[in-house]
Design a protein that fits this description.
Keywords: Metal-binding, Zinc, Zinc-finger. The chain contains 3 helices and 5 strands; from the N terminus they run αββαββαβ. It has helices spanning about 20-25, 75-105, 130-140; strands at about 60, 65-70, 120-125, 130, 155-160.
Length: about 160
């Protein structure tokens, strides 16, 4: 085009990648392959009920020793009143928990497990932040970022202090 000059270099040029630059920028690796959990080849995902299936109508011993049918409509009036009080207390506790959650800053949850960060780690490959358990679980099975699928190793992870 106008005033543009393109110079083509040799495609056989040797490009030297120096890992010292990464160490200078991000510090020494904080994790290795030895930190990853061992994954069994037979089952990647544990089954939730271990093969046990309930009928839906099960009997549980009540607070005063009487038998109450779960998922059924039968129970004594005294047990029902005690149960209502327990339900009300559980709901009040849940409301307090949600009010406290509203007071916390946003975006402090892992995008994989949706739990609050306890030990957040960031990958220097893609800059995604996930909790330690999610990162190690993903790297133990696939060596990829669980969010964007960029190839990531344990040596690419760094601790983050939020």
């Amino acid at each position: 085009a106008l005033g543009t000059r393109v110079e083509r270099g040799s495609e056989d040029e040797l490009v030297e990648v120096c890992e010292d630059e990464e160490v200078e920028s991000f510090g020494a690796p904080q994790f290795t392959d030895a930190d990853l959990p061992l994954v069994s080849q037979s089952s990647t995902y544990p089954e939730e009920n271990s093969g046990e299936q309930g009928t839906g109508d099960e009997q549980v011993e009540g607070t005063k020793g009487e038998v109450v049918q779960v998922d059924g409509l039968t129970s004594s009036t005294s047990t029902r009143r005690e149960g209502e009080g327990a339900v009300v207390e559980a709901l009040r506790a849940r409301v307090r928990e949600l009010e406290e959650a509203c007071q916390r800053p946003l975006n402090t949850t892992c995008r994989v497990c949706h739990e609050d960060y306890e030990a957040p780690l960031v990958s220097v490959s893609c800059w995604h932040v996930h909790c330690r358990a999610c990162w190690f679980g993903a790297l133990a099975s696939r060596r990829l970022c669980p969010q964007c699928s960029v190839i990531t190793g344990p040596s690419d992870l760094r601790r983050v202090y939020l």
